[in-house]
Amino acid sequence: MAASIKSKDDLIKRSTTDIESIQKKSKFPKSVFFIVANEFCERFNYYGIRAILSLYLTRKLLLSDDTATIIYHGFASLVYSFCVLGAIIADSFLGKFLTIVWLSIVYLIGNIIMTLGAVEPWKLPNLEFAMIGLVLIALGSGGIKPCVAAFGGEQFKLPQQAKQLAIFFSMFYFSINLGSFFSTIVTPILRENIVCFGMIDCYPLGFGLPAVLMSVAIIIFLIGKPMYKILPNQGNMFVKVCGCIANAISTRAKEKNTNPCEHWLDYAEAKYGRKLVMETKTLLKLLVLYIPLPLFWALYDQQGSRWTFQATRMDGDFGWITIQPDQMQVINPLLILIFIPLCEIFLYPILARFGIRRPLQKMTLGGILAGVAFLCSMVLEIHLEKTYPLLPSSGESQLRMFNGGPCAYEVTTNLEGNAAKFELPPNSYFSDLKIKVPEETRSFEYKLRTLNNPNCASSDGVGLLNSGKANSIFLNGKNYVNQYVDDTDKSNGLATIRILASLPATSNVVLMHSKKGIIYEEPASFHELKEIPVGNYKIMVDNKMIGEHKIQIGGVYSIVIYEVNQGKFSVNVFTITEPNSISILWLIPQYFCVTLAEVMFAVTGLEFSYTQAPESMKSVLQGCWQMTVGLGNLIVAIVVTTKMFESQAFEFLLFALMMFLDMAIFMVLGIYYKPIPLEELKKVENESNEKK
Q1: Which is an annotated GO molecular function term of this record (predicted)?
Q2: What is the tens place of the pLDDT at every residue in 166-219?
Q3: What distance in Å separates the CA atoms of residue 568 and residue 583, rounded to the nearest whole number?
Q4: What's residue 605's pLDDT?
């Protein structure tokens, strides 16, 4: 007997040693390097597009911030909604390899359409091209998302290569964040600092480089085909689960009175078997916990929309470097790579001392941190609002009068307050930013009396004020008056100029950017507002430099030029709206909070879900997790569509309060969550196998 026990112990030790020996000898599959490289290129493509998308929608397609936000989050929602479709296509029809190949081609076509639509001189219907491109990109990106990681996992032989599989997933996750990191740095530089196709920026290159990377991703993936282990289709578990639930509901409606069951899903046992019914029960218990998850993603994904627009109203110029508004998103992948090991080594042991050990507790804390991030956004927005220009409200108007000639005037009007009587020296301007206009319009009379030059003529005129508008009058010094409605609001990450010139008709006005060359060239006349890149500019008339000025982000400028005498010019640059003054680095606290929240909420949540789910349900759960991201983006689109608040600060506060309430609900659900023991599921599975 003792000898028998000893032999059993020896056998166990020998088998354990053999497994360890096999694991050590098992070579790392070379095929996965192609998959990891493919993922890096694809993620570079996806995050590169998302980084510059919001600014493209507002600057080039001239959509409002709200409309751009709705489209941005609608696109993200489509991406994650198509994950389920991709999983069904892969598991039920084409298999993972062919699904990745064909949907990647669809993905690339979307990239190309986006790039072509961004070439302004070709005059393609850029809005239509953008929408078609985004839908195809969403289908491609979302469709391959559930396939690539799973296909990589299939290259390993388990349990012999369990250690290598863990290394692969670490490499895979690292490649995702590395692609995001580099693309978020590079694509904003390309679209801002490069001049192409006669444009002052280069969105075609910003979209085009990601398209090139997507082409490389497809080529790399195809090159690895001879090395791949391609398994036959197993059937789609998501479809089976839906069928099980549908059958249980219909059977219960028929047999509720004649065949009572303990649980409503038990009615599907006759058709789908006890094992699938129990696994579906486990899945639904987890999905109840998923109910609060979409709101976290609603906050998290605003980094590319609301937070990017917030960055456009801040100052990223540090002299030696200029940080673009969309480049701030790079903080997220950078901090993720730092926070994941730091949390495991330092933060989680510290939290354990305070009783925060369980995954659901960490997730709750992560969700609360996301709410704190939006409180930071709210506080920052309140300070930013103090720097915004004073815009006329209904019942009020603004008056600005520019003197574009050598004559000094005394101006008398029949208006009240400061606008009743004022002096207007040569090359100067006057403003009164609060004039009552009780109706839609109000006309007023003004008299110009010269002060310093007998050769200058006095004149009278009639001006018009529009309610809720900024109104300006330009006196060109040649008895010509130009009246116009102005726009003094800040632009999204650019500067705005208007040139008011009193010059010979044959003259040209040129603005020469210190790095980009000629940005602005027009005949001498009254010029419309134009958005231009920030930087140092030479102001030139007929190839002669007459002045130099630094144009700063968010500023609105009027450049007044007149000819003093032949070949000699006077120029003055008036700052109508002050440029952005709050440093863009003040965004770091909210990025810090939301990234730490992601590590505690998202990474912990995935780990918890996988440990709680049966083996056969892990892919279904992955699809459901992706759907929560899509629903979260849909929430943002709905909130923005309602336009509940005029102030962005109140919208940030709303999201923060919703997140805190959401986490309170999540805590309650976590308290009542009782998983089905996996041992019981294993027992049912063994019984099922024995019957076969």
Answers
A1: transmembrane transporter activity
A2: 788 778 888 888 999 999 999 999 998 888 998 889 999 999 999 999 999 999
A3: 39
A4: 84
DSSP 333-357: HHHHHHHHHHIIIIIHHHHHHTT--
Query: At residue 64, what is the residue type?
Result: S
Bridge partner list, 569: 563
Tokens standing for 456? 């200058």
pLDDT tens string 317-352: 888 888 999 999 999 999 988 898 898 889 989 999
In the numeric block, which tokens belong to residue 189? 């530089």
Taking the CA atoms of residue 288, residue 290, residue 293 and residue 294 in that order, the dihedral angle to the nearest 10 degrees is -90
**Domain edges within the chain:** 28-235, 291-385+585-599+613-664, 396-577
Separation CA 566–CA 546 (nearest Å) = 13
Provide the CB-side half-sphere exposure for 155 (13 A, CA).
27
| Contacts (Cβ under 8 Å, ≥6 apart) of 646 | none
Tell me the one-letter amino acid at 432.
D
> Which amino acid is it at 471?
N
Residue 97 CA to residue 479 CA, distance in Å, equals 75
Q: Determine phi and psi for 317, rounding to 5 degrees.
A: -90, 115
* The residue to which tokens 């210190």 are assigned: 514
Q: Contact at 8 Å (CB) between 402 and 500? A: yes
Q: Which of 496, 537, 499, 497 is nearest to 515 (CA)?
A: 537
For 54, 70, 133, the CA distances from 49, given in Å and listed in that order, are 9, 16, 11
Residue 93's φ and ψ, nearest 5 degrees, are -130, -75
Cα–Cα nearest to 315, from 532, 588, 586: 586
Asked if the model's pLDDT at residue 48 lies above 80, the reply is: yes
Residue of 641, 686, 669, 629 whose CA lies nearest to 296: 629
φ, ψ dihedrals at 525, nearest 5°: -175, -170
Distance CA 61, CA 59 (A): 6
Q: Is the peptide bond before 406 cis (omega within 30 degrees of 0)?
A: no
Token output for 28:
């790392």
* 330 touches 185 (CB < 8 A): yes
Secondary structure of the chain: what % helix, strand, coil (to 5)? 60, 15, 25
Compute the distance between CA of residue 80 and CA of residue 678 in angstroms, rounded to an integer: 29
Tokens at residue 316, please? 């990223």
Contacts of 581 (CB under 8 A, 6+ apart): 315, 387
DSSP state at residue 468: T
Q: Judge whether 254 and 79 are in contact, CB under 8 Å.
A: no
Q: What is the DSSP string of 74-124?
A: HHHHHHHHHHHHHHHHIIIII-HHHHHHHHHHHHHHHHHHHHHHT-GGGT-
> Residue length, the chain?
692
Class of domain 28-235: mainly alpha
- Look at strands 530-532 and 495-502 and give their pairing: antiparallel
Give per-residue pLDDT as tens, 248-263. 999 888 888 778 888 8
Provide the phi-psi class of 415: left if phi over 0, else alpha when psi is between -120 and 50, else beta.
Answer: beta
Q: Which secondary structure element, helix H or strand E, spans residue 568, and what is its range?
A: strand 568-577
What is the C-alpha to C-alpha distance for residues 90 and 212, in angstroms, rounded to an integer?
25
